[in-house]
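call fold(seq) -> tokens
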Amino acid sequence: MTTIYVMFAIAAVLWLFSLAACAVAFLCCCFPGRRRYWLAIVLSGLAILISYLGATRFHVTYSRTVNNSHWSIDSRWFFIVPLVLGALALAFALWRRSRSSRVAAGG
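ret:
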């Protein structure tokens, strides 16, 4: 029983880390700078990778029936939010980069 709690704790830490990576990636997109652009790309890619693995490969499921009531938890559904946010952060970073290069080129 304690191993399931450890697995859920690991999944929760990975989920929170991927959400934090998305948030920092969005913040990096809001400010100009070459380092921030690459940091946003790396963090959003990392969030996408963790979310993909959490949703497809390393998910934790638990179910239990108590007093004729069935309870079930599946961690893969939690990883859809950071997957979408990571993809949006990546798209936003690429869009900001292309827009700033067009403005710098005078077009």
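The chain has three helices and two strands.
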